[in-house]
UniProtKB/TrEMBL annotation:
This is C2H2-type domain-containing protein.
Length: 171
């Protein structure tokens, strides 16, 4: 990041903070590429992180790569396990390739079976549920987001920020 760019970012940051009286919500600029309407975001509680992440597999994976230097496709036999540095996670250890799904479980999102109302904390667990539970083969998932999730409308993000939503993008 060159200095012009970073001073422009801190200028926007200060302007938003002054306008809204609270720290702006920082999101990855990449989110705009994937969403042209509403997107659900959740605070990233990875050690030292001040950003919000979109609550979906692809964006969580990108965020872990770009901002936390984690190779989220490393799953081979000889891959070293790493510790999850999420606040309140008891430092679960896993291969970096399994971290994205694990972090999704920290984001408060739940999949509720439309047939039996079973609550699953992972999408793959919901899929397995529909395969294994008699009567739930045709069930749909009702997705419920956690209390700390926010809805951001990317339509109103112009030039990388939105004063009304107190949002700014980090390249
Ligand atoms: Zn983060
Ligand atoms: Zn964790
Ligand atoms: Zn069910």
């Amino acid at each position: 990041m060159n200095t012009d760019r970073s001073s422009e970012i801190s200028m926007v940051h200060d302007m938003l903070q002054e306008y809204n009286g609270v720290n702006p919500i920082l999101i990855d600029r990449d989110i705009l590429r994937d969403h042209n309407a509403e997107v659900i975001v959740h605070p990233c509680n990875w050690e030292g992180c001040t950003m919000h992440i979109a609550v979906e597999h692809k964006q969580v994976s990108k965020h872990l790569q770009q901002h936390h230097g984690i190779n989220t496709s490393a799953t081979s036999e000889d891959t070293q396990k790493i510790s999850c540095l999420w606040t309140d996670c008891l430092h679960a250890r896993m291969k970096p390739g399994n971290l994205t799904r694990h972090i999704l479980s920290h984001l408060g999102v739940r999949w509720i079976c439309s047939t039996c109302e079973a609550t699953l904390s992972r999408e793959d667990a919901f899929r397995r549920h529909t395969l294994e539970k008699v009567g739930c083969q045709d069930a749909k998932a009702v997705v419920k987001y956690g209390d700390r999730s926010l809805v951001i409308d990317t339509v109103y993000i112009d030039g990388g920020w939105s004063a009304s939503q107190n949002v700014m993008c980090i390249p």
